[in-house]
Design brief:
The complex is a heterodimer of chains A (111) and B (115).
Chain A lengths: L3 E4 L2 E5 L4 E7 L6 E7 L6 E7 L4 E4 L2 E6 L4 E6 L8 E9 L3 E4 L3 E6 L1
Parallel strand pairs in A: 2-11
Antiparallel strand pairs in A: 1-3, 3-8, 4-5, 4-9, 6-7, 7-8, 9-10, 9-11
Chain B lengths: L4 E3 L2 E4 L5 E6 L6 E7 L6 E7 L14 E5 L5 E5 L8 E8 L9 E2 L3 E5 L1
Parallel strand pairs in B: 2-10
Antiparallel strand pairs in B: 1-3, 3-7, 4-5, 4-8, 6-7, 8-9, 8-10
Classes of the chains: A mainly beta (111), B mainly beta (115).
């Protein structure tokens, strides 16, 4: 069954600290993987996209990694800011046929 | 329009009433998804439309929920005899399937409150 699982479900960190969010998937065949950020009261917006051949991709303080062998991805946030408080959703493209969404990780950054 | 448009943005309804939620996807996008998000929870898949194929309705929680997509564009999610547990934000997303860099674009959502 094609599934995307994220952990932790929720996370609280202090401003300035780093954190890492995990995404494990069983989707096959695999086309690409995106991380989305969803601010409170808004729809999710794409942060990064990674294809099968890419291991690491950065977008400012966000760095995504992908291990296609173990079917794991992570999103690392460096020097967190209050504005990073949001839900982060991992979405896997099932060989261009359908997008499979994870349930998300809710991150709260406290001052 | 330039993005995915959902209406209404907010809806308060009495228990037992029917509601219709509308999603206007990005022009040309063949794939359309409905999700709902209860307070503090993650995305819950409801239904997926892809072109002229039969929709994937595997996420609909009960037979009170139905959705249609007319002419491959606008979609309507209907909830009959609403219950309090139906209260959630209903999100619609569209994408242009068939591309390797497919990105889902989300609407702002409809916040449904059943009182």
């Amino acid at each position: 069954k094609n599934q995307v699982e994220q952990s932790p479900q929720s996370l609280i960190i202090l401003e300035g600290k780093n954190c890492t969010l995990q995404c494990n998937y069983t989707v096959s065949p695999f086309s690409n993987l995106r991380w989305y950020k969803q601010d409170t009261g808004r729809g999710p917006v794409s942060l990064t996209i990674m294809t099968f051949s890419e291991n690491t991709k950065s977008n400012g303080r966000y760095t995504a990694t992908l291990d296609a062998d173990t079917k794991q991805s992570s999103l690392h946030i460096t020097a967190s800011q209050l504005s990073d408080s949001a839900s982060y959703i991992c979405v896997v493209n099932h060989n261009t046929d359908k997008l499979i969404f994870g349930t998300g990780t809710r991150l709260q950054v406290f001052p | 329009g330039a993005g995915v448009s959902q209406s209404p943005s907010n809806k308060v309804t009495e228990k037992g009433k029917d509601v219709e939620l509308r999603c206007d996807p990005i022009s040309g996008h063949t794939a359309l998804y409905w999700y709902r998000q209860s307070l503090g929870q993650g995305l819950e898949f409801l239904i997926y439309f892809q072109g002229n194929s039969a929709p994937d309705k595997s996420g609909l929680p009960s037979d009170r929920f139905s959705a249609e997509r007319t002419g491959g564009s606008v979609s309507t999610l209907t909830i009959q005899r609403t219950q309090q547990e139906d209260s959630a934000v209903y999100l619609c997303a569209s994408s242009s399937q068939g591309a390797r860099d497919t990105e889902a674009f989300f609407g702002q959502g409809t916040r449904l409150t059943v009182v």
